[in-house]
């Protein structure tokens, strides 16, 4: 195993490599900044959930909030990994401070590991910043890779570290994801905020499930109905442009089943719905005489029987 604290020359090489990677990422973002074409219905472009990335996207960052420092404000003036942050290097910080790479914020320099916490336990001797790792020797278990840009252990530092099920390395958190942007998904699918590819239909022919034959273009998913006329007589109403139901409210129900509960008309939902004195208790959405002995007020029939009728003791 290599020693944690490398020689000065090796540390300088590591820092130069990290800087080169960061510059390469900026170039990558800039090169695809104009590749912002995305059909909100079809996907396959530089967008997330069909919405275009405002500043473009990158294969290892997804949608970015900036391409260069010029896109950032005074408080967060540096563009790092596609996000506006407080600092990119120690030179951006005041005297006695250094730029912590995990969040790219200016914090007091560390002298040794004792100045660091459990989240960032190592004091980098070159930058005087607390970091999660200096190299792969500091990582292991579920987070085996030291991602150099944030100096944190994670799943990956590039797509090569990921598997087929989660092939995209997200450098924002060094985690392997199913997708970062829409173009990572197959045609007809879009990458949602959970970084998973979700089916998005654009016409009815794409809805092959007989139970949901219609494409709701507002949501781009397949539905049982879009309007009431799509529904059968027994379930005459279309709820939320999605499924056929018996009722949407009590007004849709007949006198014998006056309460709308869970899209169906029932006799009752609570005791107050039972107005017949001979069956004043609501049990299983039916008005019955009793549910327990206390409901039986006739001294001659003080027990509640199995059929929810008051019977003799």
- SSE pattern, N- to C-terminal: HEEEEEEEEEEEEEEEEEEEEEEEEEE
Alpha plus pi helix count = 1
**Uncertain runs:** 1-43
The largest beta-sheet arranges its strands as: 1-2
List how many beta strands DSSP finds.
26
The figure for the number of domains is: 3
Backbone structural class: mainly beta
Helicity level: under 10%
Molecular shape:
elongated
Q: What portion of the residues fall into strands of 2 or more residues?
A: 15-25%
Task: Round the Cα radius of gyration to an integer and report it.
Answer: 31 Å
Query: Distance between termini?
Result: 83 Å
Please provide a written account of the structure.
The protein is mainly β and 313 residues long. The protein folds into three domains: 8-38 and 53-184, no CATH class; 204-245, no CATH class; 256-311, no CATH class. The chain has one helix at 8-31; strands at 47-48, 51-52, 57-58, 62-63, 78-80, 83-85, 97-100, 105-108, 122-123, 130-131, 145-147, 152-154, 168-170, 175-177, 189-191, 197-199, 214-216, 221-223, 237-239, 243-245, 259-261, 264-266, 281-283, 286-288, 303-304, 310-311. It has a two-stranded antiparallel sheet. The protein starts with 7 loop residues before the first helix and ends with a strand. Mean pLDDT is 86; it is low at 1-43.
